[in-house]
Design goal:
The complex is a heterodimer of chains A (486) and B (478).
Chain A lengths: L7 H10 L4 H19 L2 E4 L17 E5 L26 H8 L3 E6 L19 E2 L2 E5 L5 H8 L5 E6 L5 H7 L2 E4 L19 E6 L2 H11 L17 H4 L8 E5 H4 L9 H18 L4 E5 L3 H5 L1 H16 L17 H12 L2 H14 L1 H28 L2 E5 L22 H4 L2 H5 L4 E9 L2 E9 L4 H14 L12
Parallel strand pairs in A: 2-3, 9-10, 9-11
Antiparallel strand pairs in A: 1-3, 4-5, 6-8, 7-8, 7-12, 11-13, 12-13
Helix pairs in contact in A: 4-5, 11-13, 11-14
Chain B lengths: L4 E11 L39 H13 L7 E2 L2 E4 L9 E4 L8 E2 L2 E5 L5 E13 L3 E4 L4 E4 L6 E7 L6 H17 L12 E10 L9 E6 L2 H20 L9 E6 L4 E7 L9 E2 L6 E2 L2 H9 L5 H10 L5 H8 L2 H12 L4 H19 L10 H13 L4 H14 L17 H14 L1 H8 L6 H11 L6 H12 L1
Parallel strand pairs in B: 12-13
Antiparallel strand pairs in B: 1-10, 1-11, 2-16, 3-4, 3-15, 5-7, 6-7, 7-10, 8-9, 11-12, 13-14
The chains are: A alpha+beta (486), B alpha+beta (478).
């Protein structure tokens, strides 16, 4: 029996025909979960008592999936991969999870992440490092590390993720799968542990674009508990996938994609950009216009610091609820201040503490104008720049990162220290603008998967997903399952 | 009295008790004796929660801003005030903060003093925010009750434009009635619904400003008066002693027990709340039509009732003041009028009897059993002559004490005897059994008349209608 490597539609058909039962799928997925846990450490919790559901006309009914551990799941440990929440069992469901549950989907595990979504390496979770299923010595990126690892390893067809800077789209790239975050507010944030509220998106990791469409169709919807959510009932992502993308207009940014723009480029970077430009050629050859556009290098260089300032500022406020008083392990101390200090000192990893210091600093009265307010202005400039592109183009297409998954050893633990190359950080613009953004695999470098990203205008998710669907069909990287070279 | 010129600014927090749910959560907004009863995940800041603005609370804040003649902004949004405290579960309070726009910006209100002179208070801003939980500190434990966490809180900030403790209290008392009249809050200080911070400085004259000292959590109007007077005196004494440099910009705590203020923190230690706009609440447009609708629904305000009572109903300013001070008392009075009770009579009975009873027993008008219908019943019996004025007062107290309908206390046994035939018989008997006194009266000793009245009362155990009794006695003693 081997079903978990299949697509959602294939699984649904098998379930409908009675070739396999929901129970059998769960058993297979749980068995694989334990194997993957052993090898790559992708899960905080494996739900061995997961129960089958009735097979309905909903494509997700009866099929197992994974949930990132920063989704509040009623009665199921939800740690956000942080010691500050290591014993926290919520009494309410995140809306997005509730929607999937109502569709008949079955959660079989909670996936490891970078602590509370902060970090892009998959190494800062309180249960340890998540390893890349293509090469154990490499990272999955993050923060949706466990979700990317598990989907790539074929534990189930999809797992949920969250994305504040690139937390779905980067790990998807490193693991050779699809990562999609829809327009801000299309999926309710209620029940997602907040990192940076103005940048936080929910989304999904899958092995093909259609599965991403199916899952997000089931996650989305206006929610009276989230004032930033909006009514997307007239959007049907699955139905919008015609595959017909002839006449679409895309653009890529010269400053990011032109190898001549880099001093002393590494071989890996050369391969990465060559692979990307080859794919652009392929796309052009299939009747799609792809133009090279130019954006002020200074503005592009500001992406990373803009992101750091805004995300750290919001994070330091959002995570002030983690005091260990009402929930989480109670700190020691003679008074509440000492108890809170003890809880937070012991609970957070050094990386997070550093970000809190940055966040506090940029929000201080005397610094706010210079840092926080300016970052918001630059954010606006960047979003305006991208919006200008959307007047002429359906989407911006760019390579994800400087190459394939990085080595665990020898890499800095905090991606924020890795320089400010726009190539590494441009996905954050998708969060600045709340743009729909999807990463799909577009090749291999030295046996490791790499990816391209397509980002479009707000609420244009149907168009963006259809373009991704069309481009995916031009290449051979759909439905890949990770395999380590022995 | 200090010889210096005092300048006072007030921050008045009023908890909006009249919304169904809390300001950013669907939990019940209701005072409860049971701790942690009206609580949902949002109120305790559990991971993943999000605020949703209560439109009703926004409506009330726009109404209040309108009464204060404040400018209502085009867009509404909220900020986070970040600090750690166990009663602040999210680690930040959702509020509004200048220089960003609040629900009410600028404005003024005119206040009348007891001597009927008026003064104007300039408003800095009115903002809508959420309340914190209530913590009770015991010997080695702190208990937190989240019922109040997230309740709507209206904070009114004045300009430093008040110059005496009495004016400050007049202002607060008047604002309190407005909250009540607008149906925003019971504004009950005993329930902790009103809390004030007070700024005080002194200077040589009105053209200069001294060093501002802030006093936190002054929780009754009496305490506001005491705290201001204490602080003016403290600062004046230091100034007189040539030690004005010891008056520093700081936050002090009013200590009710000792009647003094105590240093909490200096300006240098002032917390940086790192305000920023809450990204969870998208800035949204306040439709001008909605504002108009709210403004046209502002109920009759105390100043308007006052005008009506004096000019239309003929009450004195003194009587009026007593009635309008408390909205529920004024409502009680209005109900009496609707039942047809004469305004003057209603005012007298309320002020002299009902309020006296309430004060004696520390009750609010909402606590008492006697409703306007019962009062009307008693007053009808009085005017019919069934009971005497003295009896009416007794019945009123019995109704209040025993919480029973007034008809229970007006029966044949205690009914006033007004029947001239019945009274005539009694009087005849008394005349015939007291020939000596009759003789004295008839020979011109008028004072002995009261003796006969006394005998009739004694005979009827006080139930004889005194007017009829006197008339009959005069007649029969001729």
């Amino acid at each position: 029996m081997k079903y978990m490597n299949k697509s959602i539609e294939e699984l649904h058909e098998s379930l409908k025909k009675g070739e396999v039962t929901s129970k059998e799928l769960i058993d297979e997925s749980l068995e694989l979960s334990h194997e993957v846990q052993e090898k790559y450490n992708a899960f905080v919790t494996i739900l061995d008592n997961a129960k089958e559901t009735e097979i309905t006309d909903n494509l997700l009914s009866g099929i197992p999936f994974g949930v990132k551990d920063n989704y509040s799941t009623k009665g199921v440990l939800s740690t956000g991969s942080s010691n500050t929440l290591k014993n926290y069992v919520p009494f309410f469901d995140a809306t997005a999870y509730e929607n999937l549950k109502n569709a008949g989907a079955i959660m079989v595990n909670k996936t490891v992440m970078d602590e509370l979504g902060m970090g892009g390496t998959g190494t800062t979770g309180h249960t340890g490092v998540v390893r890349n299923p293509w090469d154990k010595t490499r990272m999955c990126a993050g923060s949706s590390s466990g979700s990317a690892c598990a989907v790539a390893a074929g534990v189930y067809p999809y797992a949920t993720g969250s994305d504040t800077g690139d937390s779905i789209r980067k790990p998807a790239a490193y693991c050779g799968i699809v990562g999609y975050k829809p327009t801000y507010g299309m999926i309710s944030r209620y029940g997602l542990f907040a990192f940076a509220s103005s940048l936080d998106h929910l989304g999904v990791l899958t092995r093909n674009v259609k599965d991403a469409a199916i899952v997000v169709d089931n996650m989305k919807g206006i929610d009276k508990r989230d004032m930033t959510s909006w009514d997307s009932s007239d959007i049907n992502l699955t139905k919008s996938l015609t595959g017909n993308i002839k006449g679409k207009k895309l653009c890529y940014i010269k400053e990011i994609c032109d190898i001549n723009n880099y001093k002393n480029p590494s071989d890996e970077l050369k391969k990465q950009l060559k692979n990307f430009m080859d794919k652009i050629e392929l796309i052009r050859n299939n009747g799609i216009q792809v133009d090279e556009v130019s954006i002020d290098q200074t503005l592009l260089n500001a992406i990373a610091s803009t992101y750091v300032i805004i995300s750290c500022a919001e994070a330091t406020s959002n995570m002030s609820n983690l005091t260990g008083l009402a929930f989480g392990p109670r700190g020691e101390g003679d008074n509440y201040i000492d108890a809170i200090k003890d809880h937070r000192t012991k609970g957070f990893s050094p990386l997070i503490k550093r970000r809190f210091v940055i966040g506090s600093y940029v929000l201080q009265k005397e610094n706010q104008e210079r840092y926080f307010k300016n970052a918001q202005r630059v954010r606006r400039l960047l979003v305006d720049e991208w919006k200008k592109l959307y007047k002429d183009y359906d989407a911006v297409i760019l390579p994800v990162g400087t190459g394939p998954a990085k080595k665990l050893e020898g890499s800095s633990l905090d991606s924020l220290t890795e320089g400010t190359e726009a190539l590494e950080e441009h996905l954050q613009v998708g969060n600045f603008g709340g743009f729909p953004s999807i990463t799909i695999p577009d090749g291999f470098i030295d046996g490791l998967p790499v990816a391209l990203n397509i980002t479009g205008n707000c609420k244009d998710d149907e168009n963006i997903l259809n373009i991704a669907y069309g481009i995916e069909s031009l290449m051979d990287y759909k439905n890949q399952i990770a395999k380590e070279e022995e | 009295m200090s010889k210096y010129y005092a300048t006072i600014g007030l921050e008045m927090h009023c908890e909006g008790s009249e919304t169904n749910s809390k300001v950013f959560s669907p939990a019940k907004n209701e005072y409860s004796d049971i701790p942690n009863e009206n609580v949902v995940a949002i109120d305790m800041g559990f991971p993943g929660i999000l605020p949703v603005v209560n439109k009703e609370a926004v409506r009330m804040s726009i109404m209040m801003a309108s009464v204060l003649h404040a400018r209502i902004p085009e867009y509404m949004y909220f900020e986070r005030k970040n600090y750690y405290y166990p009663d602040l579960p999210k680690g930040y309070q959702i509020t509004q903060n200048p220089p960003e726009e609040c629900v009410g910006n600028g404005g003024y209100i005119d206040i009348e003093r007891d001597d009927e002179s008026t003064f104007r208070v300039e408003i800095d801003n009115l903002h809508l925010e959420e309340d914190a939980a209530r913590s009770t500190h015991l010997y080695d434990t702190t208990m937190i009750n989240y019922n109040r966490a997230g309740a709507p809180l209206f904070e009114l900030v004045t300009k430093p434009c008040i110059h005496s403790a009495d004016d400050a209290v007049s202002f607060l008392e008047y604002i309190r009635t407005i909250y009540q009249y607008c149906g925003i809050s019971e504004a009950d200080a005993k329930k902790g619904q009103i809390r004030c911070d007070v700024n005080v400085s002194i200077s040589e004259d009105e053209n200069s400003l001294g060093t501002k000292v802030e006093m936190k959590n002054v929780n009754s109007f009496a305490a506001v008066r005491d705290a201001i007077n204490y602080e003016i005196q403290r600062q004046s004494d230091l100034k007189d002693a040539g030690r004005y440099d010891e008056v520093v910009q700081e936050t002090r705590r009013w200590d009710e027990e000792s009647g003094t203020t105590i240093t909490m923190r200096s300006k240098e230690d002032a917390l940086d709340y790192k305000y920023f706009v809450d990204p969870n609440i998208p800035k949204y447009k306040i439709e001008p039509e909605w504002v108009k609708e709210i403004q046209s629904s502002i109920p009759e305000l105390p100043s308007e009732r006052k005008e009506k009572y004096i000019n239309k109903l003929g009450l004195t300013p003194f009587e009026t003041k007593k009635l309008i001070r408390d909205k529920s008392l004024s409502d009680y009075f209005e109900e009496c009028l609707q039942l047809g009770i004469n305004p003057k009579e209603a005012s007298n009975w309320i002020s002299e009897n009902i309020v006296a009873y309430m004060n004696k027993n520390e009750l609010e008008i909402s606590d008492i059993y006697l409703n306007p219908k019962m009062l009307k019943f008693i007053l009808d019996k009085l005017s019919e002559g069934t009971i005497s004025s003295k009896q009416a007062k007794e019945v009123l107290v019995k109704v209040l004490d025993e919480k029973k309908e007034p008809s229970n206390f007006i029966n044949k046994e205690n009914a006033q005897i007004s029947d001239p035939d019945e009274l005539g018989k009694i009087i005849d008997e008394i005349i015939s059994s007291n020939p000596a006194q009759v003789e004295q009266y008839r020979s011109g000793k008028d004072r002995i008349f009261d003796f006969f009245v006394g005998q009739v009362m004694k005979n009827t155990r006080g139930k004889a209608n005194p007017i009829t009794t006197k008339e009959l006695l005069k007649e029969k003693l001729k």
